[in-house]
Amino acid sequence: MVSHGSRQEVASISAIEFLTGEVLLHTFVQPADKVTRWNTRWSGITSKKLNAARRQGKVLWGWKEARSALWSFANQSTVFIGHAIRNDLEALKIIHPRIIDPSIRTNEAVFRQNSNKRLWSLTILSHWLAQ
Predict the structure, then answer these.
(1) How far from each other are the two terminal CA atoms of the chain, in whole angstroms?
(2) Which residues pair with 26 in a beta bridge?
């Protein structure tokens, strides 16, 4: 995800078939608006990488095209799995009833009903689980 002002926009999209590991979709997305913050630390995306993909014709154009590409593999019964996936779904303007989000599940496991809304980063969770 990259940012345009306070709004996050999709800059890449990936979909993997959970049971087989088959990569269904993995491509850059050209944001509709000018990027004001690349968020490279988290996304790995830079203007240089996106421009190179665009020159090679390997980009989807905007969130609508990215969403259509995703729906070519998914439907309402598909389970989406992703860390803080609500941000991605919001950027794609998708409301989906079947998601698994480790950031939410971890909070529920640690705090039960007394959830303090603490969400750990994927880096911290991975480090903690690897110990």
Answers:
(1) 29
(2) 14
